[in-house]
């Protein structure tokens, strides 16, 4: 019977794996080690997950099953723990998982930090433009009308937009909420999530960064899996399950099918075209030299730098672009208002 707890963050999973591996290497029993770990951490979610895992292990359940019953860990973690238990090197597998989830946490933090600033910038600029259109522009419109003049066509259009926003803001809010809800529901269905992820992986403005992030995550997973002496097919299956992008996962499944039919792995990845060409070329070198796990780790480090560079470039382009747009909008509003006012002042003069 499953005893669901809150899902853990990658950093929490990494801490669990690191400490559990150390306890096992030191000869401490799993239950005793988990009890000590639970008393020494601050995360409430991790404490609860450890409590459930510890109780299940104390009831003579394997660690993999205890992890599954807790509901706090991803399925990938459960399968890796099972592999570690069957092979007799659970401590090594857990150490490998600790390294993987540390890098996974760093990747997510980099993406989150990179996305936060542009979103805040867009929200602030939208608020400024709405304030000008909804509150400031109508005051100038009333002033000009009192002087027997009127706003130019562009300003009248902006004023009409502001009046519409002021009268029907709740309709727009409901429409936005409906769109977000539709996207959220689509992501919960297999076909909807695959369609959205396919769009991200192929849309001209998101294709490059999406594929680089997927390549980094995939390379990292493959490097650690291969170093845990897991065969290529199973490593591909586990790595595919780790992808946040369902479309990329389906492409990795296609690669597995091609390899099963006798295709060489580099050619299989080239045919699916999901990763950059450099990935397939370096993969071929890894197969020729017999150092596939080392090549995967180098690819992971390479794409880590590529992702950082791409995110920095995107942020660097977004800021001046939106500042320029804001300047243009504000400039159009000011010119539209000031020209009639100058005409009135010249008439009075």
Short overview:
With 349 residues, the chain is mainly α. It has helices at residues 10-25, 30-39, 44-58, 63-70, 75-87, 90-146, 153-188, 190-202, 207-227, 232-242, 246-260, 265-272, 277-289, 292-348. The mean pLDDT is 82.
Q: Helicity, in percent?
A: over 70%
Computed structural class: mainly alpha
Q: Please indicate the percent range of residues in DSSP E strands (runs of 2 or more).
A: under 5%
Count of discrete alpha- or pi-helical segments spanning 4 or more residues:
14
Mean pLDDT score: 82
Helix-strand string: HHHHHHHHHHHHHH
Q: Give start-end ranges of low-pLDDT stretches.
A: none
Tell me the overall shape. elongated
End-to-end gap: 87 Å
Q: How many runs of DSSP E, i.e. beta strands?
A: 0
Radius of gyration: 28 Å
Largest beta-sheet characterization: none
What topology emerges from the helices and strands here?
Elements: H1 10-25, H2 30-39, H3 44-58, H4 63-70, H5 75-87, H6 90-146, H7 153-188, H8 190-202, H9 207-227, H10 232-242, H11 246-260, H12 265-272, H13 277-289, H14 292-348
Helix pairs in contact: 1-2, 1-6, 2-3, 3-4, 4-5, 5-6, 6-7, 6-9, 6-14, 7-8, 7-14, 8-9, 8-11, 9-10, 9-14, 10-11, 11-12, 12-13, 13-14
How would you describe what is shown here?
The protein is mostly helical and 349 residues long. The chain is built from 14 helices and no strands. The model has no long low-confidence stretch (mean pLDDT 82).
Features of this protein?
mainly alpha, 14 helices, 84% helix
């Amino acid at each position: 019977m499953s005893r669901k707890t809150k899902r853990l963050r990658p950093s929490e999973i990494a801490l669990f794996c690191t400490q559990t591996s150390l306890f096992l290497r030191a000869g401490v029993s799993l239950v005793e080690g988990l009890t000590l770990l639970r008393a020494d951490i601050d995360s409430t979610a991790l404490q609860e997950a450890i409590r459930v895992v510890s109780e299940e292990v104390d009831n003579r359940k394997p660690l993999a099953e205890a992890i599954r019953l807790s509901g706090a860990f991803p399925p990938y973690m459960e399968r890796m723990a099972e592999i570690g238990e069957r092979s007799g090197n659970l401590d090594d597998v857990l150490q490998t998982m600790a390294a993987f989830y540390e890098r996974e946490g760093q990747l997510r933090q980099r993406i989150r930090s990179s996305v936060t600033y542009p979103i805040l910038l867009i929200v602030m600029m939208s608020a400024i433009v709405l304030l000008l259109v909804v509150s400031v522009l109508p005051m100038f419109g009333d002033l000009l009308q009192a002087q027997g003049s009127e706003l130019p066509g562009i300003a009248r259009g902006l004023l009409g937009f502001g009046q519409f926003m002021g009268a029907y803001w709740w309709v727009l809010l409901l429409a936005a909420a409906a769109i977000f809800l539709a996207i959220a529901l689509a992501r919960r269905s297999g076909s909807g999530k695959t369609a959205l992820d396919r769009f991200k992986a192929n849309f001209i403005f998101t294709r490059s960064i999406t594929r680089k992030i997927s390549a980094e995550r995939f390379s990292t997973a493959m490097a650690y899996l291969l170093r845990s002496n897991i065969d290529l097919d199973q490593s591909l299956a586990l790595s595919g399950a780790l992808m946040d992008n369902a479309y990329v996962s389906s492409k990795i499944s296609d690669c597995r099918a091609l390899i099963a039919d006798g295709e060489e792995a580099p050619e299989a990845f080239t045919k699916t075209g999901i990763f950059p060409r450099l990935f397939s070329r370096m993969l071929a070198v890894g197969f020729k030299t017999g150092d596939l796990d080392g090549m995967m780790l180098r690819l992971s480090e390479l794409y880590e730098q590529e992702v950082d560079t791409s995110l920095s470039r995107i942020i660097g382009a977004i800021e001046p672009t939106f500042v320029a747009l804001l300047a243009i909008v504000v400039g159009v509003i000011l010119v539209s208002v000031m020209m009639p006012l100058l005409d009135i002042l010249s008439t009075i003069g």
